[in-house]
Each structure stands twice: as C-alpha cells, then as structure tokens.
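Q: My labmate handed me this sequence with no annotations at all. I'd like to see what the chain might look like in three dimensions before we decide whether it's worth expressing. Could you predict it?
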Amino acid sequence: MYSVETCGVSEGDRFVKSINPRGRAWKVVAIRITVDGIPHARLASCDNRSSEQTISTLTLRDRDYWLPAAVSPSGNGR
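A: Here is what I predict for the chain of 78 residues:
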C-alpha cells in the first residue's frame, strides 16, 4: 500500500509524459508538501539534469498525463 501523502510516488521513480511515452524520462529527485497540503514531486530530466519541473503527485499518478518509465539495463529510464 502506498502513502496517502505522496500517492505512491517516491524519490527515484521515473516517469514519461503519456503523449510521448518514448520521449524524455523524468526522475523524482524530491517530494515536498506545499502549504496547502498538496504533495508535489520535483522532477529532473534523466538526460539533462539542468532541466527540472515540479508536478503534483496526484497528476503524476494520472495515466492521462504521465506513465511510469521502464528502466532499461543502462539505467537511463528509457
């Protein structure tokens, strides 16, 4: 069972956008709860660590927007 606070999202999890599942993979590098109580994940691009974004963990678990990335043997998330 997953944590209600983070909706089952953990540091180290990898995701891809559902509209481009073969595109850039994103790795969860931090999870924070905002002042309104909504958990957000800080994502870093697996191929360009300087590219980051913050997404609600609820949105990350919504398969209309994001999908879990398959981890390849090379470890790059694609």
